[in-house]
Design goal:
This protein is α+β, with helices and mostly antiparallel strands. The chain contains five helices and six strands. The protein has a three-stranded antiparallel beta sheet, with no helix packed on it. The longest helix is centred in the middle third of the chain and has 17 residues.
């Protein structure tokens, strides 16, 4: 592993432990050349997943897109970052547990909405309003009524 500070190859692991998600290993490394420490994460490589978009184009799965959408929905809401990350991990686990090579973006959106509904109502409605492309106030009110039932 190259040192991110001096680019030398001679680094060594000084500490290893499971990461917070228990799905990866956190390693503290020490560079023998410059003496600085840095952290790396080791994760099981998964089969590449292809997402089928609404317009039928295909692109490789990108976790950061889910993160961006969820963070936008949770903006200025009293939700700890740990809970948001745990929810995104649950979404990702559910997606990869399907063991399919392709998944429709519609399915990912439904999974995210299902998890957001349990996390926080306002974040759920925000995400749903963009995802379901609410055309007017009536469709927005219909979605709110579903939550209140």
């Amino acid at each position: 592993m190259k040192c991110p500070f001096c680019n030398q190859d001679n680094t060594r692991v000084v500490d290893s432990r499971p990461a917070d998600d228990n799905c990866s290993i956190r390693r503290r490394r020490l560079c023998d050349a410059c003496g600085k420490r840095f952290t790396t994460y080791e994760k099981v490589e998964t089969i590449p997943l292809i997402v089928i978009k609404k317009d039928q184009t295909r692109e490789q799965y990108d976790r950061s897109k889910i993160e961006a959408g969820v963070l936008r929905a949770c903006y200025k809401r009293p939700i700890p970052v740990q809970k948001i990350n745990a929810m995104i991990d649950e979404v990702e686990t559910e997606i990869f547990n399907r063991e399919e090579k392709e998944i429709e973006s519609k399915m990912i959106g439904e999974i995210v909405m299902d998890k957001l509904k349990n996390l926080e109502a306002v974040a759920y409605v925000r995400f749903a309003s963009v995802y379901r492309e609410f055309k007017d106030v009536n469709t927005f009110m219909d979605e709110l009524k579903k939550i209140l039932e």
